[in-house]
Amino acid sequence: MTYSSSTPFSEYLQVEQSKYPELKLDDIQKLKESLEDDENLPPISDKKYLAFLHSCHFDIELARKTIQRCYRFHFRIPKVFCELDPLDDDIELSYNCLSIGQMPTVNTDKNDRVLFMMFQDTDHEMFEYLPLFKYLTMWMNYTLLKYGTCDGMVIVVDTKGLGWRHIAKIPIGIAGKMLKFLEVGLPVRLKAVHVLNAGSATQMIMKMVTRFANQELLDKITLHPVGSDDIFNYVSRNELPAEVGGSLKSHTFFNDELYNDLIDIRDDFLEQNEILNNQMMYVNQRHDEDDE
């Protein structure tokens, strides 16, 4: 089952409840009511409320806190969350530099969803982190919109070609905030991050991650040594591209597919940008008035 932005919430809820009977309309309503007086939040769709409730394992209070934290990070890093356009030049550059594809496990009910990433071009001058963060944010919104919830998101990153020149470009402030967002603000269940061909450059990144991330997030990260095929102890060959020993098509096929899918829902991103930016202006104006 796939959805679109025009899918009615009643239909979306019915299918999601068939996957997770724990999703109750009354709980979604209680979650909405618990936040109705929070003027810092933008308008939130019922589908997004459902996603947060699911990501928090149906805990209403935790979902409430997660929503507040999520949008707090949206407004702390607006360049990542409030300026999303798949046709922007920096996104096209990222598309040509990195291969980012969602594996076709999404068609198998509520099973784990696998996102695969690797370099297409290892030229460090082409590589930027901000477009990567934006790309991943668009993917997260896209996968919820089109496929709904699932048991867990699994991210597999092949770091072959990663060097110190790539690492030197890390925007420490934004990267630290993004790690905190992963810990406390996600509307999805992040299950695992598998890093393939983890050499010395990967170890350098992990030293930085360890400085900012909590133990719960660190426990989800598994490093696989250069040349190792033990990834298949965690993810099946039927869920990975040919370049890393999987049985699927080339990573470039899935990179093209996701990129085009993001472009197809560009209007949704532009509409969300406007909503978030209007809310951010309102919040900032209110804070300025309070300071007077």
Keywords:
292 residues; 13 helices; 5 strands
Question: Overview of this structure, please?
Answer:
By secondary structure, this protein is an alpha/beta fold. 53% of the residues lie in helices and 10% in strands. It contains 13 helices and five strands. The protein has helices at 9-19, 25-35, 46-55, 60-76, 78-81, 89-97, 129-147, 164-167, 172-184, 200-212, 215-218, 251-264, 266-291; strands spanning 98-102, 113-119, 153-158, 190-196, 221-223. A five-stranded mixed β-sheet has the order 1-2-3-4-5. It starts with 8 loop residues before the first helix and ends with a helix. The mean pLDDT is 94.
What is shown here, in short?
With 292 residues, this protein is α/β, with parallel strands linked by helices. It has helices at 9-19, 25-35, 46-55, 60-76, 78-81, 89-97, 129-147, 164-167, 172-184, 200-212, 215-218, 251-264, 266-291, and strands spanning 98-102, 113-119, 153-158, 190-196, 221-223. It has a 5-stranded mixed beta sheet.
User: Which strands sit side by side, in order, in the main sheet?
Assistant: 1-2-3-4-5
Coarse structural class = alpha/beta
Strand content: 5-15%
pLDDT under 50 segments (min length 5)? none
How much helix is in the residues?
A: 40-55%
Query: So how many helices?
Result: 13
Q: What is the H/E string?
A: HHHHHHEEHEHHEHHEHH
What is the makeup of the main sheet? 5 strands, mixed
What overall form do the CA principal axes indicate?
Answer: globular
Distance between the termini: 52 Å
- Work out the radius of gyration: 19 Å
Number of strands: 5
Mean of residue pLDDT?
A: 94
